Amino acid sequence: MTDFARLHRTGAPLLLPNAWDHASARLLAAQGFAAVGTTSLGVAAAAGLPDGAAATRDETLRLALSLGSAPFALSVDAEDGFSDDPAQVAAFARELWAVGVAGVNLEDRLGPAERHAEKIAAVKAAAPGLFVNARTDTHWLGGGGDGADDTLARLRAYREAGADGAFVPGLTDPAAIAALVRALGDVPLNVLYSPTGPTVPDLTALGVRRISLGSLLYRRALGAAVEALTGIREGRAPVGPTPAYADVQELSGG
């Protein structure tokens, strides 16, 4: 078992902040987090590309290359693997593993579960040590899909294909979360934190083993920038912490 996999099974749940570039990843890790994820929305938006359209394969790989040897575990949001071909998804996973990436998120986008399972199996064959967090979008895109049975059936198929973890973004109902934790047994459940959903202590009590922040920090950063700008325009000094120029330079080795 890798150190990253162990974070899903021992101690407190893995609270995973998600970065969008080199500096944000380094800054988040400096707060004491043993692992940092990437957010596909942040990576895509920063590059002026659409999210969820298989448009950011190169940008994602470049970010992984710059961070894979960092002193923290890196998990990469690879959308659906940037391809419908399991062999191409496996080749991308092999590149991630080669530069030091510890984990990858692969989403099914409510496509055929069999095809997603084939991708997962191909990735595990190509990079056995890479932690595959299998995401189903039954709640994110489908409003619950065909119900809890559809979610569980998909996740069980992905586990049979070799997935190491199960990710269900959009799932916020405490009873449904607890039921899924029980049904998955030894498969660690990952949920996406929502400011209007259960708190981190609540999710811990429900048995969740990984809590991702997704694009929340990136969107908050954009909001803070706009707030600072409008305040300056109206004669107010910005409030809140602002890293010094030298501190940001240090994040990139400058």
From TrEMBL:
Could you tell me the keywords of this UniProt record? Lyase
Q: What SUPFAM superfamilies does the record tag this protein with? A: Phosphoenolpyruvate/pyruvate domain
Short name of one Pfam family: PEP_mutase
Is Lyase one of the keywords? yes
GO molecular-function terms, A-Z: lyase activity
Tell me the InterPro entries matching this sequence. Answer: ICL/PEPM, Pyrv/PenolPyrv_kinase-like_dom, Pyrv_kinase-like_dom_sf
- What is this protein's record name? Isocitrate lyase/phosphoenolpyruvate mutase family protein
Give the organism, scientific name: Streptomyces flavalbus
